């Protein structure tokens, strides 16, 4: 074999080895890329399943609330009303017994208070105003029931609000309800502001208070204390929403909710 032929074989062999190396590298890169795509697809599928599971969980909670509210109103409420009627009939027959009559009056007063509490619990479980008149009216009713001489709550929102789906309204109402209750019970706030408005293709809900604040990290570490806040995050994850906690111990809290509205086109700017 002469030198020319040897060099030719050497070049051919080197070329074949390079081609094989390139093929192997391309195959490995393709395989890794395919694995990455499969992992991303699996994570997306798991995330979608998680959101669907959370949505089903919250839907089940709302259905259970409605069932309990219906049972309270239809069964317990009816039984209390019948009991009150029986007491009234008994009271008319005890006109000569002053002590028994006073006891019946006291019992009737306690019964009236119990009936009032049953109605209140039923309305809290399922705010009928939300179903009938929408989110803004339900928030106004929440404020009216919560405001007293020491606590002032105000709602800032446009006169007209974009039409929202029923699940979206329920979610925003539950979040606002949770934040208002936290501000009063835990932060001991005396002034709370609820802001609700649509901007471009998203809806924003903010709840601010002048309470004593809290340490967000400490609260979230405590399973007993952070349940409400984690519940808010879980609700928002279903609709790919976002929450920002501007909080700190010793000062008021500002909590902002952002939720993108599906199939919502931004309004054109005025000419």
From TrEMBL:
It is an enzyme of class 2 (transferase). Pfam families: HATPase_c, HisKA_3. The keyword Transmembrane helix applies. Keywords: ATP-binding, Kinase, Membrane, Nucleotide-binding, Phosphoprotein, Transferase, Transmembrane, Transmembrane helix, Two-component regulatory system. Residues 67-263 form the Histidine kinase domain. It catalyses: ATP + protein L-histidine = ADP + protein N-phospho-L-histidine. PROSITE patterns: HIS_KIN. The chain crosses the membrane at residues 6-31. It comes from the Bacteria. Its EC number is 2.7.13.3. The keyword Membrane applies. PANTHER family: NITRATE/NITRITE SENSOR PROTEIN NARX-RELATED, NITRATE_NITRITE SENSOR PROTEIN NARQ. This is histidine kinase. It comes from Nibrella viscosa. The lineage of its organism: Bacteria, Pseudomonadati, Bacteroidota, Cytophagia, Cytophagales.
